[in-house]
Design brief:
The protein is α/β, with parallel strands linked by helices. It has a domain at 63-196 and 279-354: Rossmann fold (3-Layer(aba) Sandwich), CATH 3.40.50. It is 43% helix and 12% strand. An eight-stranded mixed sheet has the order 1-2-4-3-5-6-7-8, sandwiched between helices. The longest helix has 20 residues, at 205-224. The protein is globular and about 50 Å long. The model is unreliable at 5-43, 48-53, 200-214 and 369-381 (pLDDT under 50).
Length: 381
Amino acid sequence: MAGSEVRRANRIGRAVAGTVLGGAGLIAGGAAAAIAAEKWLVYRLRGGQETESGDDFGTLRGTVGTVVADDGVPLHVEVDGPEDPATTVVFCHGYALDQDCWHYQRRDLTGIGRRVFWDQRSHGRSRRGRPANSTIDQLGADLYRVIEATVPPGGPMVLLGHSMGGMTILALAQAHPELFRGRVRGVGLIATSGRLNEVTLGLPALLGRAVDAAVEPVMRTLAWRPALFDHSRRFGAEMSFLSARVLGFGAGSVSPALVDHLDTMIRRTPTDVLTEFWPALSEHDKQEAYAVLRDVPTLVLCGDRDRMTPIEHSELIAEALPDADFVRVPGAGHMVMMERPAVVNDALRVLLRRAGVPEAPSVPAEPAADGVPPTTDAASP
């Protein structure tokens, strides 16, 4: 490849990487025409409305508790359902999100026993952890503590994870295979990966590699001045909305309120949290954990327009687990459980039946009294 082509690919990669981080809007700081075009596009994507009322996002709450991780970090946990459940279902969210990404599962899957929703360390209402402990292995250890605190001793459970949440489950399986020899009755891996060594954003190979190479130095820069970037994010609402729409969802029509909900979760995750966890994601390799899941009913589900953990990653997991149910959701993106909740919920019901979980009649989930969404506590333990 000619040197000019390599330089051009790297320039494009850096530009796309900036968009991923929600800061590319600043690049066009003095370009009034570009900003006007951007605002027009956002306006059109929002259906000609500047705002739209949400679907009660962030208002469904459970009984609040705190689980202390093995390094002392308090983790925010909410529990719905009976005190003496037949089975406990634990939901694990992904990178830069919080438990409210499970809104439609929390709303519609109310008859499946006890449901545990928790915020990963440094996300949502959980407290901040030390940068050195921002690893997938630590998240697996955190999940073990959550299980100890919320699942009855010796009781059965089903573990559901989206993206980094699925990686958390794989880390738990690698560290505690004994749990998966009877107590863990089912596992759901949604838009996740056993080895996330390259982020291509659905671009052609050359551009994908350029983006992957560009993200690391961008992350190092943000880690140096996170407060400055946090300040810029507050003034880049339109670009942030566009990034959430493009990277979070697929090709079909998506409610602007849904995009706003995703955008809100991402924007309230501090920049230094994003930079602290990025190395763990880029170095993630838990393929050895597949062997632990071979005798456990497993669902592998992904949208075929997922730009963050492309469906090829799910295909590799499904190949390693031939008895798993593999569900490809046409046209859906990374936030498939928000974008296509009926499809995902039906697949989860099948998994739960395979795991021996009887579904009771659904009861509408209760919204929070104050409707206040989670916020990240900036204090370190």
